[in-house]
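User: Here's a structure from my thesis project, written as structure tokens. My advisor, Dr. K., wants to see whether a designed sequence matches the one we expressed. Can you design one independently, without my sequence as a hint?
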């Protein structure tokens, strides 16, 4: 009886979370750069790269959004976070910073984090480079923002940085087929599961006596 009740609660929670993600993706308006309060840093999350270092189109859009925010004076630096896609291959953090430089972002305003392999690691490793930051702006696609916010708030708690404020800036609402323009429903379905997978990993990491950061890969 208890198991059945827990199962029902789990199904309801999954449904509510999925609906919230879809609402954020398709209903939440894209904020203007002037809508954001000044922050200490903009954080650009990696989101797909080939083994040879070619960034996926959605990542390029994220970078462009970060540069727009920087040029609008929303923060003095941009952190590009993402690890390698292949052993000994180029890191996404560096590849993103190079593209940002081609768009006019000054080298002095670019910070790279080249080890993260997940959103949870994005949070931990980026915030380690921003120990004095009080406010950051996260940039990624709309469907990924809720998980990103939770990941960074968890990372701030892990690093005793509880006063960190996290603002969310969407680069675009959802990935689409570049030829047909069809919505990428598969990635939305995967995201609805990834939220819970991340919560489970974060909880295990937090309660373990000697956690290994590779658990968060």
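Assistant: Designed independently from the structure alone:
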């Amino acid at each position: 009886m208890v198991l059945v009740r827990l199962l029902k609660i789990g199904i309801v929670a999954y449904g509510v979370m999925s609906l919230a993600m879809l609402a954020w993706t398709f209903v939440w308006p894209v904020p203007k750069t002037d809508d954001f309060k000044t922050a200490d840093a903009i954080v650009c999350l990696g989101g797909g790269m080939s083994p040879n270092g070619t960034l996926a189109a959605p990542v390029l859009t994220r970078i462009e959004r970060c540069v727009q925010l920087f040029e609008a004076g929303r923060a003095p630096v941009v952190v590009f976070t993402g690890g390698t896609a292949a052993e000994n291959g180029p890191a996404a953090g560096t590849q993103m910073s190079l593209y940002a430089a081609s768009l006019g972002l000054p080298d002095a305003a670019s910070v790279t984090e080249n080890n993260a392999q997940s959103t949870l690691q994005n949070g931990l490793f980026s915030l380690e480079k921003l120990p004095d930051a009080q406010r950051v702006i996260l940039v990624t696609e709309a469907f990924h923002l809720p998980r990103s916010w939770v990941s960074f708030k968890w990372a701030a708690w892990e690093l005793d940085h509880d006063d960190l404020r996290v603002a969310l800036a969407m680069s675009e609402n959802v990935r689409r087929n570049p030829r047909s323009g069809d919505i990428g429903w598969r990635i939305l379905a995967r995201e609805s599961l990834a939220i819970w997978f991340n919560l489970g990993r974060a909880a295990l990491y937090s309660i373990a006596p000697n956690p290994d950061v590779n658990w968060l890969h």
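When you compare it with your expressed construct, this may help: The first helix runs from residue 2 to 26.
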